[in-house]
Amino acid sequence: MRGNVQIVLAALIGVGCLSACSLFSTTPEVADVSGAAEPEHEHLLLLDSQHIDSRLVVLTLQTPALDGPTKVQILLPDRYDSTPTTRYPVVYLLQGAIDDYTAWIREGNAEALTAGYPMIIVMPDAGKDGFYADWYNNGALGPPQWESYHIDQLIPWIDAHYRTIAARRGRAVGGVSMGGFGAVSYAARHPDLFAAVVGFSGLVNSNTLSDQSTIPDQVFGPRSTQEVRWRGHNPWDLAANLRGMDVTLYTRNGLPGKDWLGLNPTEIIVHRQNVELHQQLLAENVPHHWDDHGAGAHKWPTWQEDLSEALLGLVTVFSNPPGTPSPVSFKAIEPDYRVFGWHVVLERPVLEFSTLANADTHGFTLSGSGIATVTTPPAYTPHAEYAVTLDAGQGPQRSLLRSSAGGRLSIRVPLGPANPEQQYTEAAKNAGGTRVYSVTVTIGTAAARAATGRQPAAP
């Protein structure tokens, strides 16, 4: 699929040099999950831990993000206990709908298929129809808050309690069906957390009417009034955010195959969605692995085959992980988001997409409405002066800014009048549509002080 992955696996497993290979780390790691001032994983309470066998552990956790206790299955690598200084990459495997956290072990044969692989496999519960989101609940919001639990709490908790490579380079996510939606949605909404994503017959595009019935209205709200929430989690709409990550899509067409004699309507629908995402990734120039295996059904035997193949690909990814993309581009509906060290806060009254594009040490372009404050990564000399130019197409505006003690610049970016109506609603359409304004920001040295005639502003 991706070259000589069998040779790579043999090198890692067959010659017994696990701790010496680049797939591993024997140095301390610090979790790269950013969020609230206090660590979110401290909200998780471990109620019970059961060692089922030498590899399989079942945890019971309590979190305010959910209504009751929740369970997680973890598969540890062979010899985990006998390699106390070795850290391992982590693969999060997500369940499908009308199923639970046991699915990958019970139906997917994950314990046998992952035997011998130098990885930690984490399989959390996600509810029968949780769809990996913080639920809208008719405006009352969560619980359940599946995304907050998985992303803000569980990932850093796993990093704090197991010997993981607690960084993007050592983390991947994959999922089947509804879990395929969750995996690709999580990867697109949090691209700085994952080096790779794998979708196994994932529900990856909810933009057609026949596909929307699979998602309860409580998750994102009624489509007629909350379409922006649907799109803000929809892999197809967020395809460009996957650039710089190893992306793999597995699908079949639902026609009779060796494991299924009749038509399989679910896989026919899923196949179309995956084709649409594949085409969108091509349109966005996002490299990815497209594995359309032809005939086959929405069934576990096909996903077992896919997992067996995907694990070999993940060995290659973890051995040579992608670096931080430069420049950074990212789109989101939230008015406050962080990605790869960038922090964008928008002052506006409604939900709508904004885009941070081509962001690097030389500047960026921001699109949206309202007034934004963009804080850069710590890439500048502390307390130094920098010339900042804002250009909205009507003539540049120049000023001087001083970086913070941490080497960050905080730049206020007026985009344009904030839209009064939420994007994609009838009210927005009646008001002439959601207006999008773009401002290009250029960051240079302070040599332009004479040109501006201004003193630098404090960070």
Can you offer a commentary on this structure?
The chain has about 450 residues and is an alpha+beta fold. The chain has two domains: about 5-320, Alpha/Beta hydrolase fold, catalytic domain (Rossmann fold), CATH 3.40.50.1820; about 330-450. About 25% of the residues lie in helices and about 25% in strands. The protein is built from twelve helices and 19 strands. The strands form three sheets. A nine-stranded mixed sheet has the order 1-2-3-5-4-6-7-8-9, with helices on both faces. Strands 10-13-14-19-16-17 form a six-stranded antiparallel sheet. Strands 11-12-15-18 form a four-stranded antiparallel sheet, with no helix packed on it. The termini are far apart. Mean pLDDT is about 90; it is low at about 1-10, about 10-20, about 25-40 and about 450-455.
The major sheet is characterized as: 9 strands, mixed
Full CATH superfamily name of the largest domain? Alpha/Beta hydrolase fold, catalytic domain
Mean residue pLDDT: 89
Number of domains: 2
- What multimeric state do the chains show? single chain
Structural category is: alpha+beta
Instruction: Give me the number of helical elements.
Output: 12
Number of strands: 19
Q: Mind telling me the C-alpha Rg?
A: 23 Å
Helix content: 10-25%
Topology-level CATH name of the largest domain: Rossmann fold
> What portion of residues belong to β-strands?
15-25%
Label the overall shape. Answer: globular
Strand arrangement within the widest β-sheet reads 1-2-3-5-4-6-7-8-9
Give the C-level CATH assignment of the largest domain. Answer: Alpha Beta
CATH architecture of the largest domain, by name, is 3-Layer(aba) Sandwich
Low-pLDDT segments: 1-8, 10-21, 27-38, 448-454
Distance between the termini: 49 Å
